[in-house]
Amino acid sequence: MRRIKSPIYISYGMSGKLDGIAAVNTDPLSNDFCIKAATNPDWVCFYCYARKNAKGYRANCVNCWKRNSQVLSESILPLELIPTLRKGTKVLRFNAYGELVNKNHYINFANIAIKNPLVQCSLYTKRPNLVDVTTAPANLTLVYSSYKLNEPAPQLPPGFHHLFAVYTLRYLNEHNILSNCTLECFKCLKCYGRRGATRILEVVKKDQAKYKKYLLTISAADNIKNVREVVTNV
Ligand code: SF4
Q1: Mutation to probe ligand 1, out of 185, 198, 199 (largest number of atoms < 8 A from CB)
Q2: pTM for the whole thing?
Q3: What is the pLDDT of residues 203-217, one digit of tens each?
Q4: Hey, which of 183, 190, 224 would you mutate to test ligand 1's pocket, going by the most ligand atoms within 8 Å of its Cβ?
């Protein structure tokens, strides 16, 4: 029997923080939610790496992501059009680029996880209202990504497994808070399973070069413990 090709494009060549992790991405440049969010300097989206990269070194991917946005949001795809991931894929990130467009988008993601039960999937979203947590299969981790930069007390929506919030180094220092995100997902995998830390604190992209340099100078065991030292001079 001939295999039907899925219209969903899988990115197997992620780099940087997501090196080694496959992703289903969508287009942040044509997503109304992203466009609006990027104009607010109090929101993390104001510093969005995805929009910047989509206009820069990832510009050649935008057509594929745009097609994914369309296909995933237009309708709930029949199971035969849901992709089977490449053999050996262990971890999949939904929307490393982009944000949920609507409820169809979420349901199609949940169905990708269902069709690939051996792959540990993770969805980050700032739109928990589009997620039906009761239908999330066991291999889908739901991460609520707090939209506000330097949010003092972000709350985990019911049914979500982790809360992801972004801070400037200055804020972390001033409030004596420690980052617990190592910026190397494939080695860490905290956000790709339901156990462990429910609150992940990441350093905002614009401060990450300094933070990474600091991480290189200390041992793995101490890599988070002493972040205060690097932020003192920010
Ligand atoms: S905590 Fe770990 S898995 Fe989560 S974003 Fe940071 S490096 Fe990636």
Answers
A1: 185
A2: 0.89
A3: 998 888 887 777 677
A4: 190
